[in-house]
Amino acid sequence: MGLYLWVTVSLCVLILVYAYLKKKIELTALIASGLVGVVIFISLGDLWYWIYLVLAFFIVGNLVSKYKLGEKERNGVGQEVRTYRNVFGNGGSAVIYSLLYYYTGNSLLLYGFVGAMATATADTFATEIGQIYDKKPRLITNPRKRVRVGTSGAVSAPGTIASLAGAFLLSLIPVLFSHHISYLYVGALAGFVGCNIDSLLGAVVERRLIDQHTVNFLATLMGGLVAILFAFLFT
């Protein structure tokens, strides 16, 4: 177990340093990611290996962001260098749920953790895949209205399918660790709902009242709450 722990820590450090050297993330994002990782790592206690949910999001998020990057850049929606705001927008809610779990020991909060990370993954997949395969997405608050790629609150069929795939893949990880299949269906459903909450907030309040990163934080927080509710009702 000791070797597994140190391998995990080393892997996290190497991936973050690699991302920084490749200019995928800024120094602020490197520090923020380390802080988020340490807090989650300590808060989860004996379940420290759940840090692989965060690590998986980081890896697959960057990979899917690179998918057909040239075409995205031509459309004006290419990948930006990640800052601390991206880190806390996507990972801040997971920190909250892990801290609450640390102080209460309530296992329902683990579902909140999964739901938050599944929402972040679903949203990333929906954005990065949807803007490639649908050049005229629809506004979630007015499905008859076509909008340009990259518009806050825009949704598409390819993006919706991708969001489900992203939430499903992320939610598989805790099943591998715990063998509780409930993490899969609760996490996948909550991630999908959270992703749509993100789109709804994007259409209604983003750029008017709050920015994209705050929208991401609120959506992941709500995705976690949805997961807790689903777990309470159905597990």
Describe the structure.
The chain has 235 residues and is mainly alpha-helical. It has one domain. The protein has nine helices and three strands; from the N terminus they run H-H-H-H-H-H-E-E-E-H-H-H. The protein has helices at residues 2-21, 27-43, 51-66, 69-74, 84-104, 108-133, 157-178, 182-204, 212-234, and strands at residues 138-139, 142-146, 154-155. The chain has a three-stranded antiparallel beta sheet with strand order 2-1-3. The protein is globular, with a radius of gyration of 17 Å. The mean pLDDT is 89.
Helices and strands in order, then pairings?
Elements: H1 2-21, H2 27-43, H3 51-66, H4 69-74, H5 84-104, H6 108-133, E1 138-139, E2 142-146, E3 154-155, H7 157-178, H8 182-204, H9 212-234
Antiparallel strand pairs: 1-2, 1-3
Helix pairs in contact: 1-2, 2-5, 3-6, 3-7, 5-6, 5-9, 6-7, 6-8, 6-9, 7-8, 8-9
Percent in helix:
over 70%
Main β-sheet, spatial strand arrangement? 2-1-3
* Beta-strand residue percentage: under 5%
Order of helices and strands: HHHHHHEEEHHH
CA-to-CA gap between the ends? 30 Å
Instruction: Provide the gyration radius in Å.
Output: 17 Å
Q: Please tell me the total number of domains.
A: 1
User: Got a strand count?
Assistant: 3
Q: What is the count of helical runs?
A: 9
SS-based class: mainly alpha
Name a few traits of the molecule.
mainly alpha
Summarize the structure.
The protein has 235 residues and is mainly alpha-helical.
